[in-house]
Amino acid sequence: MKAAMLRSVLRRSSTASSSSSSYILRRGYASESHPERKVAVLGAAGGIGQPLALLMKLNPLVSKLSLYDIAGTPGVAADVSHINTRSEVAGYMGEDQLGQALEGCDVVIIPAGVPRKPGMTRDDLFNINAGIVKSLCTAIAKYCPNALVNMISNPVNSTVPIAAEIFKKAGTYDEKKLFGVTTLDVVRAKTFYAGKAKVNVAGVNVPVVGGHAGITILPLFSQATPKANLPDEDIKALTKRTQDGGTEVVEAKAGKGSATLSMAYAGAIFADACLKGLNGVPDVVECSFVQSSITELPFFASKVKLGKNGVEEVFGLGPLSDFEKEGLEALKPELKSSIEKGLKFANQC
Fold it and tell me: Is residue 153 a known part of a binding site?
């Protein structure tokens, strides 16, 4: 029974069209033919990192799993390595082993840093995590400059611009290979919408655009499928709940954690999409915070098509309801400020 539950833990439907293939993780896929892919998790001993390491170990597209943190990684690596799936696991600890952890990576996932606690602002997070992201991205530029980088460390609205500037300084920046992981916003929007509309969540798609904090998160419920024709008050409530999802979890855990499990799940979903794109699977589309020209802001989250070189296409917003148009204009000043904060930090270093 436990094995069956575990094998189905990452069943998913893509945020792409219904033609996109879903997948289910399963044991005994050693005979399947997949390219060799090395994936690193930076911050693998943390609250997000540990369950994310587990989920990536279950992914049949991963052949080598590199787990890195400043401490505690050997134990996590030993634990995960006992799982009878394809990938070989190696644990690395401390700054002197960071390069070894990154060498040859195809995808680097960064959940490193401190999580949000009750009363903690995004500024508090920034003051700690910005420096961590800077040092990790400096190493990525040196040891695996061609890897797809999946940024989970908050505040994503600022850490992605920091990463971009660090890579530019190193001469390795490729806008197609840097992603802010906003998948948790999509996961929440799908879940909340399905509950309110009383439809099967497995068939629900909801694009989420903007950024990855508070009002910068804009779920486009007018484009949700299947169409439910929910009243305006329900749409407003669903939007607010999606925006405040992280706070909801922080408060429910009463100071003992943040949204670590759901974030690990979302991170695994997005990393899987990146791997599928690298492997040439067609029509892989997820929402992500990337360099963008669809608004006047230099970075913006929207639907992105993934391919062998990372971003193949950044999609426009599509038709918006009046409520969503208001939300779009309302989020721009805050998102602009967060982006500029990240750029300023990176250029002062």
Answer: yes
pLDDT of residue 124: 83
pLDDT along the chain (349 residues), means of 10: 45 37 39 85 98 98 98 98 98 97 98 81 85 97 98 96 98 98 98 98 98 97 96 98 95 91 98 98 98 98 98 98 98 98 92
Q: Which amino acid is at 306?
A: L
User: Of 196, 200, 209, 269, nearest to 243 (Cα)?
Assistant: 209
* pLDDT given for residue 114 in this prediction: 85
Question: Which residues have a catalytic role annotated?
Answer: 212
Q: Is 152 marked within a binding site? A: yes
Quick one: DSSP state of residue 221? G
48 labeled binding residue = yes
* Residue 123 CB-density burial (10 A; 0-12 exposed, 13-18 middle, 19+ buried): exposed
